[in-house]
Amino acid sequence: MTLTTAQQVRLRIQDIPLIADLVQTFDGTADTYPLQNGAVPYRNVTSATAFVPLGATAWTATGATFNTSGYVAFSGIGSAHSAWRWRGVYSVFSEDEIGHFTAVGGTVAGAALEAVQVLMFDALKRASWRAPDGTEYDDTRAMDMLGKLHDALKDEIADAQVGGGGFVSWAEGQADW
Fold first, then answer.
1. Do residues 117 and 68 both lie within one domain?
2. Is 116 exposed, middle or buried (0-12, 13-18, 19+ CB in 10 A)?
C-alpha cells in the first residue's frame, strides 16, 4: 500500500497520530472543557469519545461533542469534582496544515521543511523560561535539533534541484556555457 503525500509528510516529521486516554474532573459550573493533560492542551483531535463513571469500576459513553481545537461539550453541567474520561486521537498538525505545507513546499521534503519552520518558531517562543514557583524549563537542545533538521532538509531540496542529488563539478558545468 502506498502512503499518501500527507502520510509521507507526517512520517517524515514524525507527526504520527497519537492516542490520549485521560481522566479529568467537572468543575460544577461549565459544560465545555478543554482536552488537556495538566497544563498541556490537545489540539487537532480527529476522533474522541467522552465517558462518565458507571458504578465503581466501569465507564459509559456520553453524547458529548468534540471539536478539532481540543474542546468537549457535554449536554449539561457535571457535578463538581466528579470524574469524566476522554479517549481520542490527536496530532500536532491538522490535515489542513499538512495540506498547506505540501502546497507551499511542493515536495515531501519541502513540506517537511515548512513544518520544521513552524516548529522552530513555536519552540523559540518557549525555549527557556522560569515560573514564579522556581520551576525552570530549558529546551534549547530542541532548537538545536530543529536547526540541524532545517539545514539537512534545505540541503536535500537543493541537491534534488541540482539534478537528482548528485555532485556537479563547477568545471563540468562551465562546458555548457
1. no
2. buried
